[in-house]
Amino acid sequence: xxxxxxxxxxxxxxxxxxxxxxxxxxxxxxxxxxxxxxxxxxxxxxxxxxxxxxxxxxxxxxxxxxxxxxxxxxxxxxxxxxxxxxxxxxxxxxxxxxxxxxxxxxxxxxxxxxxxxxxxxxxxxxxxxxxxxxxxxxxxxxxxxxxxxxxxxxxxxxxxxxxxxx
Length: 166
Prior knowledge:
Layout: E1 8-12, H1 16-29, E2 34-39, E3 55-58, H2 60-65, H3 71-79, E4 86-90, E5 96-100, E6 105-108, H4 122-135, H5 140-155
Parallel strand pairs: 1-2, 2-3, 3-4
Antiparallel strand pairs: 4-5, 5-6
């Protein structure tokens, strides 16, 4: 596969050694391709993935395991460990927070549905919406609330049918 034919590649930080190899390979052969990495759960060596990401997407579970009770506190701590342009931390029913490389901080409230029906995939919807907004060139101030809204919409319905990044 030629990674250079893509605009953006997304990775999940599960098998850390393999993910690190894939990220480094992309950086070697297609340095202009943006890469995002989801840091969902603590795993040995997961911090090594920070070095080759343009966007790091953290979960509340990871932040809490790392000792943080506020998403921006985690992002501020990580900022010095990565050259990533964007850092985002989803905080479930409490919304999300983000930082850009220049230090601009954004918070967004969650947009819960009238009734929670199915939360499976809400995090993936959130991540996809963040990536989509950044690919479109939108600022975090536009991207983060939209991602929270779409994740909330997902929680109010079964499955992904009818979900649109609008």
